[in-house]
Design goal:
about 80 residues, alpha+beta, two-stranded antiparallel sheet, globular
């Protein structure tokens, strides 16, 4: 399993209720760098789903809860 060092969050995606995921991940995994960015260039994804960027690419989910679960599973 690859070690995640940084998670990037699109602040425009916070309209999809991503902010609680950001706060929870930052609190639960302080050893990972959590970076908020104005735009990550994934506008088609951002418009329809919750997503974050990690080194391997975009992690997407239909709901904030699903995204949180996917990230926890990925981190281990």
């Amino acid at each position: 399993m690859k070690k995640i060092k940084k998670i990037k969050y699109c602040t425009k995606n916070f309209k999809n209720d991503l902010k609680p995921v950001y706060k929870a991940m930052k609190e639960r995994y302080p050893h990972i760098k959590h970076k908020k960015t104005g735009c990550l260039g994934e506008c088609k994804t951002c418009k329809h789903e919750c997503f974050v960027m990690v080194k391997s690419g975009a992690i997407c989910a239909k709901s904030p809860d699903q995204l949180y679960k996917q990230l926890k599973q990925l981190i281990g």
